[in-house]
Amino acid sequence: MKIAVLSSHTSSLFWFRMDMMKDFIKQGHSVIAVGSELEAEWRSKFEENGIQYKQLFVERNGINPFKDLRTYRELKKFMKEEKPDKVFAYQAKTVVHGCLAAKANNIKEVYPLIAGLGSIFRGTGIKNKIIKTVMKVEYRLACNASKKVFFQNNDDMNEFINNGLVQKEKVVIINGSGVNLKKFQPEPLPVTPTFLFIGRLIKDKGVVEYLKACKRIKVNYPEVRCILVGPFDSNPSSIQPDELQPYIDNDVIEYVGEKTDVRPYLKQCTTYILPSYHEGTPKTVLEAMATGRSIITSDAPGCRETVTDGYNGFLIPVKDVNSLVDKMEILINDQEKNQIIAKNSLKLAKEKYDVKLINSNIMKTMGIL
């Protein structure tokens, strides 16, 4: 069979969905990956893995209806020309327009993944309310055009069911994207307490809270290292370089920019921190768990699924810098406790988040295993 995998972000396809696409191919199927970034830049990278790549126009963060219409038309044309047997789509715009474009071409085997509801969906204010209303209509139409709908956490699933956006019998829960346990392996913890944040530098990821907490920690524990990995972003809530620079200049954080391979930085840390406001299931947390690191993350949709409080890390209230600092201090001052928690993280990664288990669930649901 021919399987199309759609995303509005090509690098996400390549780094987060490669294991899944390779498993599709191992079952004897062909895969076409569809993303927004240049074919000249990405085609050869996908082809090296036996995957065809097509570029799609999509404005990830915009709300221009004419640009969205262009995305729909391009996807509709793609479906007509390629005639995929099955479609897997994730990220808001490719879910909505991909599902509708498939329906317009009488493709019934459509499987969207709702991998976390963004800031617009959970936000407040008149503008947010209007956009959220439109998004609900779009999601309802997309789910109606789908055979099954994947969710990564119960909060998002219940939000959709309670708002009548998806029929309960269509829902399938999966434990995130999973983590490749061959690629991310346990590493010994360094002697110096070291904290790490990996992610786009947008406020919804909790990067501001991380920076504020690190600033306070460095006052009393100047030997502690605080590392920041990730790119600036086009998202409206992205922090700007001039906002980050004082933290760099004052040796609060070590900013290393965006990295395609985060393993060297996971190796350097003793604790991984993600104070995000909402997620699907954060892949960076799973990768940190697989390397045997304690976790501090938010008691928020998607994040809370990854941590049993006190077992493999700590859950903190959203936007609560004081609580974050408290938990960081506990792990700084009790290295033996951190060692135990880190081992529990690795155990949980193996038992629950192995990418092989996740992909098997996806393939069984899609009828390709």
From TrEMBL:
This is Glycosyltransferase involved in cell wall bisynthesis. Residues 192-345 form the Glycosyl transferase family domain. CDD domains: GT4_CapM-like. Gene3D superfamilies: Glycogen Phosphorylase B. It comes from the Bacteria. Residues 3-153 form the Glycosyltransferase subfamily 4-like N-terminal domain. It holds the Pfam family Glyco_trans_4_2. It comes from Salimicrobium album. InterPro entries: Glyco_trans_1, Glyco_trans_4-like_N.
